[in-house]
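Hey, quick one: can you model this chain's 3D structure?
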Amino acid sequence: MIWSYSYRPEIWPAIVTLALMIYLGQYSWRRRHIRGARLFALACIVCSPWILGVIMEILAVDVTTQVFWHQFQALWPMAAGATITCFILRFAGLDSWLNWRTCAVLFLVPVLHALTIVTNPFHHLMWTGFETTRHVVPLHGPLYWYFNGYVYLLGVINLAVLTWVAIRSPGHRWPVAVIVSGQLLARVGYALDKTDTGWFGPGESAFFSVGIVASAYAIAFLGFHMIDPVTAARKSVLEQMREGMFVLDRNNRILDVNPMAASILGIPAASLLGRPISAILPFDPGVAGDPDDAAAEPVEIVLGKPDSPRTYDVNRTPLRDRHGDLVGQLLLLHDTTEHRQAQARILGQQEVVATLRERERIARELHDGIGQTLGYVGLQAQSALKWVRGGNMDKAESLLGRLTDVAQEAHADIRESIFSLKANSLQGWSFIPTLRTYLDKYQANYGIRTRLTVSDRVAEDTFEPLAGVHLLRVIQEALSNSRKHGSASEVKVAIDMNESQAHVIITDDGMGFDSSRLGGADADSSHFGLAFMRERMHQIGGSMEIDSKPGVGTVLKLDVPTRDRWRQNVESATG
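Sure thing. Here's the predicted structure for all 575 residues.
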């Protein structure tokens, strides 16, 4: 054998094919942590000696050397086909099929094929000889077509698996179509090469048998990012995300779901595909093709068994193509059950705390007000009885007159306390109507004019009910102070708001007091209950400011969070 070689232009198709295989091998190896990337890199490695043998055959000068390289390159096609089949099984997610038994069966024929080639000089079952024209032409032996038929059997298996992937995953249909087209063209080129039609030289044959397939994979990998980390990362996020995801077409039929969506519904993902979303979820997804409806506010739905229901917020996002046309919707189901339960627990705890504090306030008022009044009445009644027995009727009459005034005042205090308690029922409770009713009755009971001014920006749902109850109690306490200590003849209540807070201003025309001399909690509670009022405002995240001067009345300013800000504060508290 003379190992001499000479340059021929026919090698360029083969060199391009070899360069493409090396590039794809490096590309997939750098992404070897992605599903199937290692196997494809291995397939590129197996194909490279095949193409190298073609190049060396073209460059060889003597016939013996050409025959050697022809036999060398024949060792690799079947091994490459088996490796590609393993890659496609891994890429399709059929890992349960890709076990050691399957691999043994796939590579059994390539191993027997290689042994037959190596031992061919002893039995001539693969080739009976070689002819030389412009290129080496083998004379086929009895087993030649049996072995090469195995390549086409692998092609049929690959085609079936790729078709299944395209049906199961619409996002892979274009790259699968490119790969299938490349494989079909490659099989045609391989058949033309093996039938010795003379249409192709060795270099062109290598390009049509291997290069076209490599080009198809290059388009799929680089153009559609089949094994790109970004695509894999997005798929991983969809598989691990805690929200259920539904992809709908324009007719609101399910195109794709993630594992969490199937888990939420308790239905296999494959059984959900193609079904109308309205048959799965208890809500209207909107009119197909309506972009405004597709961008609607989140919808709350309840799923699960009656004894263990789960609450979900459904967020809808329109999906558009590159021309801006609506092609479907994306639905995300976010489980809010624990959040709702935590929020209800916190509100329940706040109501319990508010009730206990209200009981303490009532007990304090009974002790400081009615209790002291009754003690005073008892002592004065004894004195009056003493004067009656002594015959001093003038002093007894004067004392009894004072007792009458004290009793009337105590009766008014009791009526106000009872009225305040009745005004705070949370059953169908709304702040503005309740406040309006209280002011009307306050005016009727005490003869003090009341005026309520409410801005157009303030609505019935501006205040969270629990915050509204606290605010009403503070207003009641302020009006009680205006009556008891300010001797007011008119009280004005004005309510306005901005984006996050409502502003309540209470003004009376009473005697007023020097607010700069307020000395602390003890002074506040003993005179006007200001400590109690500040405590309530603190509980609802609000603030209170007093402006008063002797002889010019009192102005009380209250800032209260709106319903949305209240809920944000509660969510922050739940963490």
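One thing worth noting: The CA atoms of residues 328 and 343 lie 34 Å apart.
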